[in-house]
Amino acid sequence: MIADRWGVRDAEVARAYPCDEYVPAPALSAWRGVSVAAPPAELWPWVAQIRAAPYSYDWIDNLGRRSPRRLLGLPDPVPGEPFTRILGRIPAGEVLAAEPEVHYSGRIAGAVMSYLLVPNGTSTRLLMKLMMARGRRLGPLILTGDLVMARRQLLTLAALAEGGGRPAEGGGRPADGSCPGPARV
Hints:
Blueprint: E1 5-6, H1 10-14, E2 28-36, H2 40-48, H3 58-61, E3 84-86, E4 90-92, E5 94-99, E6 103-108, E7 111-120, E8 123-132, H4 139-161
Parallel strand pairs: 1-2
Antiparallel strand pairs: 2-8, 3-4, 5-6, 6-7, 7-8
Helix pairs in contact: 2-4
């Protein structure tokens, strides 16, 4: 399906993700990935901070309020607490599972997703898998919207973990051929 992959390799699509156990027969699955020039210990606090804000296009999914550009010192995520917040205060979704420096998984708006931090020498592969039990009819629309938003989120988290700030528009390094369009792999 168009837009079901961005920045991921075939082996990353084939691997198991924590969200797999929550949606055993998905109608829709999508994978996203980015290479981060930081170890998991430096990337994890930013991924775990998704609980405070979405880190995507703030003008769309945070009603214009900027996601924090400094670490807030949040404790590690706990299942049952809000997955993210809109405007820093409105809870959205639910944390399903988390393992510090390994994965962050949750449910939001009918989707279940996992962020996986895979060590790669001194860097990290930040992978995301999104699954929905229903959604065949709107699948292409959902995947295209997710592609745009998740791409921005992963690039923003990578830039913050790398000590940069705002990621460059247009996006990152060229893909390795496993998916169309620009990607940071």
